[in-house]
Amino acid sequence: MMLMSPTLALAGPLEDANAAVDRWSAAYGTNDPEVIARTYCPTAILLGTVSPIISEGTQAIIKYFTPIKGSGNTNTIEERRTITINDNAAVVAGFYTFTRMVDGKPVPGPSRFSMLVTKEGNEWCIAHHHSSPRVLPKN
């Protein structure tokens, strides 16, 4: 359960921010909207991959993730870059793949993301998250 909640800062901001993003990915794999929402700051803003609206705050984020409850969906982070802003904030951007279960079969959804991860008190959480489908290179 410790993996699913914000953590105390034990390293530098770059490591702590990346650990917060990894906790989000693990939380997504639980398919529990409330567990996922705990990785976000209470006033976080989410621009979800499949949403036409801005989800702001814990309840809106729970509502956004409610359709995946019990679905078996997963997320794998493939590549990321992290920019430390200061001791309390970092931006993490990269590529991840959502694997959604459709009719019992895994369907990959390559996507890209950016997250502003901030330290509130002694805990790191996601303050802003933007996700969109990934444009794959043409061969």
From TrEMBL:
Boundaries of every DUF4440 domain copy: 19-125
Coiled-coil regions listed: none
Pfam families registered for this protein in UniProt: DUF4440 (PF14534)
Domain of life: Bacteria
The protein's name: Uncharacterized protein (TIGR02246 family)
Record organism: Bradyrhizobium huanghuaihaiense
Taxonomic lineage from the root: Bacteria, Pseudomonadati, Pseudomonadota, Alphaproteobacteria, Hyphomicrobiales
